[in-house]
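re the bet — no i am not wrong, look at it urself. input seq straight from the record:
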Amino acid sequence: MFIFVSGGTRSGKSEWAEQLALTLSRDNPRVYLATARIVDEDMRCRVARHQKARSGRGFLTLERSRDLGGIFHAIPANALVLLECLPNWLANEMFPEDGNICGAGGLEEEIFRTALALRERCRHLLIVSDDIFSDGVVYDEVTESYRRLLGRLHVRLAGVSDAAVECIAGLARCAKGEAGMLGLGLL
C-alpha cells in the first residue's frame, strides 16, 4: 500500500504518519528513510529531536539526502518505509552541496520513477510532504521553479497512491482512498 501524507508546517503529519506506520507494520520491519541534509546546528538539533521521538518505536533509520535508489539494497524485504520528506529530497537533488542548481527538467521524472521503484521494493510506503503553496508570497524564479516542481510531484504521487491524507492542526483527513483501510480514525 502506498500512502501520500501532506500538510503544512507543524500540522502533525509526521507524527500521524509514524502512528500509521506502527499500525501497518506490526509484524514487518519498519524503515525510516530520512532525507534531511544537516547544514547547521539548528538542523542538527531538529534531527536529534526527531530521532529521540522515534526511539523505541522499532524503526531502522536510513539517512540519505540524494540518490535514494542507491540505498534500496539496505531496505529489508517486506518492510514498511516511511520517507520523510519529499521537499527535502527534492531540494537536495535540485540544490546539491556543490552550489549548482539542477534544472527541473529531468528531476521530476527521476524522483517520480524512484518513488515508484521504492513502492515496488517494500510492502508499504508512506511519503510525507509539506504544503508550501498557500502563503501568498511571490518568490524568486528559482524558488518558484522548486515550488512548481514540488506541486507537480504532489499531484503525480497522490494520483498513483492508494490513499492521500492531509493533516491540519493534528487532524488527518483522507482525500483519496478509504479511511477504514488505514486502520486509524480519520475525518
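see?? The first helix runs from residue 13 to 24. told u. also The beta strands are 2-7, 30-34, 59-63, 80-84, 124-130, 163-168, 171-176. so pay up
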